[in-house]
Amino acid sequence: MTSETPDKNASTLEPTEFGPRDHDTIENVDNENAKLLEQFLDTISDDGDADALGVEYLSLTELHPADFSDQLEQLTDEARETLVNYAPQLITADVLAELEDEVVEDVLPMLPAAQIAEAVAELDNDDATQIIEEMEEQQREEVFDVLGAHDRAMLEASLEFEDETIGRLMQREFVAAPEFWTVGDTIDHMRETGQDLPDQFFNIYIVDAAFKPLGYVSLSKLMRSDRAATLSKLMDIKLTAISQDMDQEDAAYLFQKYHLISAPVIDSSERICGIMTIDDILEIVQEENTEDILALAGVSDSGLTDTAFSIVKARGPWLFINMITAILASIVIAQFDYAISEIVALAVLMPIVASMGGNAGTQALTVAVCAIAERDLTPRSAWRVVRREGLAALLIGLIFAVVLAIIVMVWFKDPGLAAVAFIAMVINHLCAGLAGVMIPLGLKRAGADPAVSSSVFVTTVTDVIGFFAFLGFAVLILL
User: Fold this and answer.
1) Is the Cα torsion angle 284, 285, 288, 293 positive or negative in sign?
2) What would the pLDDT profile of 199-252 be if each residue is shown by its tens digit?
């Protein structure tokens, strides 16, 4: 049946294409979309004729919501306000779901409660919850007053959970069936309740009388099976369920470990109450990875709507902590000022030892934080990883210690100074490698996020030990 040639006289719909086509690049498509939006804004500001505005408006509605949201995010606050106030209908439910959180927070106050309620009712529960949580309390109540009782109850239930937990993020619409149903019963039920089904789903969950999940049947398997086949014979009992109180990072790990497309969410009574799907997990993974990368640098994400003051407020405390650690290193140097005054070469070589140790510590720290996030570095494997990183740091320290000693001999022609540089380089590399692993492990055991503050402690260790080892051995050997 799939190989039959379609009737040439039958009417067909032309497919709508989004994104780059033929030899277009993503950048070219983005530029074309940006020009289209700028032209529409220019026509508005110039009080252009209605026909031109109508054509440009229609072109904007034909953009994919992801493309339109990208361009909306790039606008200035003033241009965005002009666009939303003039054509609020362009801010559809799908566009709101695609926008970054800070832009949603900026756009929502410009929209009427009725339009937001209509958009929220159209979206799946997880996307609707993300929009609702960006609202001020007063606007949220206005939207809830317009929403239907069912939609409001589901959203309020989601908001009762802590941020970044599965109960807040899960999709509450799902398809469940008893094990004695046949394939035909299931298909007929889905057709009859089509409007109440989620927009996209991959599995049908088989439940018992207490609504506890027993297994699942994938849609592909269901459609290939005979209508008379019972779900109990088709279902896969290898089911990975997720608690509604689980942290989103732990749920993402389960999806990655068991190669899941979707998973049921269960409450404290082990009853199915929602599902998580792979598209939501991908967003979580990207969000967590970005958060860890920024945390390693001691900064937070800077959105397009952030002001210079908010950026300073976010970055200032970490820079202050770095200044304190730098003062600690300076105090160590001050204890050996007499040595530096007698041997000026020490001042020339000090930064080399400290910076090499700092870079080695950062390398070990980055590997350790990633391994902790991926559950590869656990208490069981910690000692093995510490030994490995310590040995690697020692070998690298020996290699570069030899290189530095040769440079010092050629430069200053002083064997004692070369020996000092050699010893300090080995010690600092060894301490840097060990600190890069042990500090994030210690913070993890203490219940802190190892990505947030590890870099500050590692930098302190490498600077203080590097300067102390170099200047201390200089005093012992040269003075």
Assistant:
1) negative
2) 788 999 999 999 999 999 999 999 999 999 999 999 999 999 999 999 998 999
In a domain, 312, yes or no: yes
Question: Minimal CA–CA distance to 269: which of 293, 243, 294, 291?
Answer: 243
> Which residue type is seen at 160?
E
- Please indicate, yes or no, whether residues 241 and 344 belong to a single structural domain of this protein: no
- Which residue, of 253, 275, 296, is where some domain finishes? 296
Asked if residue 250 is part of any domain, the answer here is yes
- Answer whether 98's CB lies under 8 Å from 123's CB: no
Domain presence at residue 116: yes
DSSP 8-state symbol, 13: P
Q: Which of 296, 330, 359 is the last residue of a domain?
A: 296
Q: Which tokens belong to 398? A: 């020996």
Helices (H), 75-148: 77-86, 93-98, 101-107, 113-122, 125-132, 137-146
Cα–Cα dist 189/177, whole Å: 9
pLDDT score of 313 = 77
Q: Residue 13 region, left (φ>0) first, then alpha (ψ -120 to 50), else beta?
A: beta
Contact 453, 382 (CB under 8 A): no
**Residue 326: C-alpha distances to residues 118, 166, 340, 473 (Å):** 55, 41, 18, 21
Predicted pLDDT of residue 306:
64
Full residue range of the structural domain in which residue 36 is found: 26-169
**Distance (Å, rounded) from C-alpha 245 to C-alpha 271?**
13
172, with CB counted inside 10 A (0-12, 13-18, 19+), is: buried
Mean pLDDT calculated for residue range 397-403:
95
> Coil, strand, or helix at residue 264?
strand
| 333 and 472 assigned to the same domain | yes
Total domains present in the chain: 3
